[in-house]
Design a protein that fits this description.
Length: about 240
């Protein structure tokens, strides 16, 4: 095939591809065109990558589809422990946690006053009590009665014994948003059940935390360890 024939094949293919990809997912194997010259093959690959087409996905709106771990945040309000369930939790660094709490939550006043809070990681067997803490207000019920409560280094950050992992935090920054109070906490101490430790590290397979999905308003289980972070990617070289 000469250069002219190669250009004709390329132009015809790109026309067909740009039209058909609106209705069908692009599945192209350049091996089907063994007689096209190397330069034409490179151009074909480039055009294939640049064609703006829809690849069989459905737009579902501006939906936050990120699954997030569900935790129980603890604080003292008027000298008494209370808890609320949240899934708006972020990691700023190895020793910093960000929590975003709706302004209407009863617990906010205690966090603001004492500048401390706890983050308790519940297991699957606590999903019912966790959900209860998210739909009931501390103004109306004493949610601390659901758990065995204790304190560590911070006297105003109550900790839940039944949760296998707990972190005590001191507030370092607070951000005000129209709907939520965002608290940044420095981790002062982390507590973990011996049964959830493997070689001194928290083993999520033993903790069995669960995730919240906003798209279906469901709690989802986690699974087994997939790979070693900062290690598995080295296989691509």
């Amino acid at each position: 095939m000469n250069s002219f024939e190669g250009k004709v094949v390329l132009a015809g293919f790109l026309y067909y591809f740009s039209f058909s990809c609106k209705h069908h997912p692009p599945q192209v194997s350049l091996g089907k065109y063994p007689r096209i010259g190397e330069k034409a093959r490179e151009q074909l690959s480039l055009k294939y990558a640049q064609v703006n087409c829809r690849i069989m996905k459905t737009e579902i709106g501006a939906v936050n589809a990120l699954p997030t771990v569900t935790v129980l945040v603890g604080a003292n309000v008027d000298g008494k422990p209370t808890y609320t369930a949240i899934a708006w939790v972020g990691v700023i660094g190895r020793t910093s946690i960000l929590i975003s709490v709706n302004k209407q939550r009863y617990i906010n006043s205690g966090i603001k006053k004492n500048q401390t809070f706890s983050v308790n990681l519940p297991s699957e067997n606590l999903v019912e009590k966790t959900d209860y803490c998210g739909i009931k207000s501390g103004k109306d019920v004493d949610k601390s009665l659901l758990f065995t409560n204790f304190y560590g280094k911070l006297e105003n950050a109550p900790i839940i014994q039944e949760c296998p992992v707990n972190m005590e935090c001191e507030v370092t920054e607070t951000f005000d948003t129209p709907t939520h109070d965002v608290f940044v906490g420095e981790i002062v101490a982390t507590h973990c059940e011996d049964s959830a430790l493997v070689d001194g590290n928290v083993n999520l397979g033993k903790v069995k935390p669960f995730l919240l999905s906003l798209t279906d308003k469901g709690y989802w289980k986690t699974g087994d360890k997939l790979a070693n972070a900062w290690e598995i990617g080295k296989n691509i070289e």
